[in-house]
Write a structure and sequence with these properties.
- The chain has 7 helices and no strands.
- It has one domain.
- The chain is mainly alpha-helical.
- Helix 1 runs parallel beside helix 6, helix 3 runs antiparallel to helix 4 and helix 3 packs antiparallel against helix 6.
- The longest helix is centred in the N-terminal third of the chain and has 34 residues.
Amino acid sequence: MFSVILGTYCLAGQYWIDPEIVRAKAQQIGLANPISYLLGAIYFTFINSLVEEYIWRWFVYQKCEVLVSGNKAVYLAALCFTLHHTIALTAYSRSWLIVAFGSIGVFAAGAVWSWCYLRYRSLWACYISHLLADLAIALIGWDLLFEGALFAGALVHELPI
């Protein structure tokens, strides 16, 4: 997931995403400086991904399994997970292209994580993969907010130490 997200961003996403829109949204929610962004990224990467796995795999997937059989429950849970994220993507992006491709990616990730839960009945594989996906998104956010600093190798120079 990590490689697919970063690879997609490097190949196409950086041309589709307007950094000014991202910066304006980050300013609105208080994440426009490196320290607050880093703290927010740590929260979303480590804590929010765990909370989402408990909600979407442990609770929602199990409820979907009550309604339909295993493999169908995988896709139903992934669809619910996608709808939730599509709403968020729409709120934070003015681009139907970002929303469409992001939703496809979220559906694929949700299906993989739900399948992992079906197969192993454990949240650990789902959580680690989700954490890595969120880490890739956090790195992209840093790149967009702080003008390509990450992928130019200047991460260390941007943080006030």
